[in-house]
């Protein structure tokens, strides 16, 4: 796993020494992503420079050094990622007469591009990656990103120079890069807790969308006109194709086929020349990945989990039981508010761009823990989007029933009554009811979930309910000064995926937006910050395509989410160890803000600070903050993006 950067200027405009100096300086901003090696390649006559930082995982020898030139000398690549099926591709290229110097996946990918062309090579590659490819013959630069957006890639203008990199920190190193904040994008941060692609926090700067290739030549560079990226793989198109070819098999056969496919995906992700382990939360997805890893390992697997003293958020005990059953070498770390507070000053550097999913803190800490023992760690991310794991998928039909059969005034009254009591009060009532009926599951964070449901139940349509559900701020323009809403597919009903089933629509929206812009950003930045490579077997495109061939009743059955994955897991782990309501990877940030983190938060949100910065309306922020302190309401989800932006802003000044 690595970091890449580079720039492109009109041919002959900048000399070789200057281009090399700019690019080398930019690579140093990415040193945390690639602490093992670095390199720069420059062709001043063509106006191109490529830079690379390397975290050596496959072929740590000098033969894996980047930027790398193809055997035929036509292409030069700087690449971040892993191609899991590179041994198979290499074998095919060997038969075709291609010779190799080393055994890195980079060299195989470069040979595949030389042999089959860029688009075909990307479509045949199974992995996670971002790359910049210079075609010396056609004098064109190609930027490409993997199917699901596991690896980041930014691009934009620094004066008349086209610049790109794995993180914004690299782009900021180029002369004349203008770090002007985009207030409209800031509104997106408050709504989604992240800045969705293709937008970034800066003007004239973008993220490449997953499954896209952007190609730029001399003409576009001269006019400073940004070419439109081209799609080489689309999750929505792949899902529609799979739906048109549904799996014809019994439930037992489907479970067997999924197990075989997952096992192969996990095996591919276990190829490594350095120590390897896995994150284990105790949930269905990570437990399935660890089970399939352990059955294919000849020694105890190293697993890692994070715990909390607050039982409402703690899954560490469940993870420990599963690790004990599977026989893994398990390590856990319980974190406190003090641990979180120690991480917070580092977050602007770790995440580079404002990012406000509060589970970024435990994700960083578990990555740091894993890095003390291994250099590669597998995770269970992606299972919720593929196999209907989020609660909202199970609720979809119930929401339609509520809209169709419960009058709007009654829904409004129910919402007001639910919001009248604090989440803590509802937790107390819920605990009393459970004491009278001790059998059954306890729903974690009941009060917070009830408040969230109350906030959406008044919506006139299911689409509006979903829009409210994924919005931390329903109207960000109320608090962000001089901002307007940026267009997003989720806010445009005509842009929703063309499938008839509402649950499937929101699963695809989550796959194309929430997954790459939140979940995968979180794990990439947290792991890269400590020099750890994180791999996600469930995002093997073969698993995705198989999942979308499955009938919906194999995903949601009898109120149980991810039914088919649970059947696979039960072949390795007793159901009693994992059969419980979904908890999520959250932290008790609301309580921490009222106590240990209060002084820090009040400093960032003080009226004087907000007036000086002039991004947020002080009266709106103070009203929200005082209501949170009461504690009638828990506004942690609305407050955290404010705090993360303010922390990032202070760090960048």
Short description:
This protein is α+β, with helices and mostly antiparallel strands and 653 residues long.
List keywords for this structure.
alpha+beta; 14% strand; globular; six-stranded antiparallel β-sheet; 653 residues
Average pLDDT figure: 91
User: How many separate helices?
Assistant: 28
Approximately how much beta-strand content do the residues carry? 5-15%
Shape summary? globular
> How are the strands of the biggest sheet laid out side by side?
2-3-1-9-8-10
What does this structure look like?
45% of the residues lie in helices and 14% in strands. The chain has 653 residues and is of the alpha+beta class. Strands 2-3-1-9-8-10 form a six-stranded antiparallel beta sheet. Helix 9 packs across helix 23 and helix 17 packs antiparallel against helix 19 (446-456). The longest helix is centred in the last third of the chain and has 27 residues, at 502-528.
Produce the secondary structure layout.
Elements: E1 2-8, H1 16-28, E2 37-43, E3 48-54, E4 68-69, E5 75-83, H2 86-95, H3 105-116, H4 118-124, E6 127-135, E7 140-145, E8 154-158, E9 161-165, H5 168-171, H6 183-192, E10 205-207, E11 212-216, H7 218-223, E12 230-231, H8 235-243, H9 251-269, E13 276-279, H10 284-294, E14 302-308, H11 316-326, E15 329-335, H12 337-343, H13 347-351, H14 360-371, E16 376-378, H15 383-387, H16 391-405, H17 408-420, H18 423-436, H19 446-456, H20 462-469, H21 502-528, E17 533-535, H22 541-547, H23 563-570, H24 589-594, H25 598-604, H26 607-613, H27 618-629, H28 636-652
Parallel strand pairs: 13-14, 13-16, 14-15, 16-17
Antiparallel strand pairs: 1-3, 1-9, 2-3, 4-5, 5-6, 6-7, 7-11, 8-9, 8-10, 11-12
Helix pairs in contact: 2-3, 3-4, 6-28, 8-22, 9-22, 9-23, 10-23, 14-21, 16-21, 17-19, 18-19, 19-20, 26-27
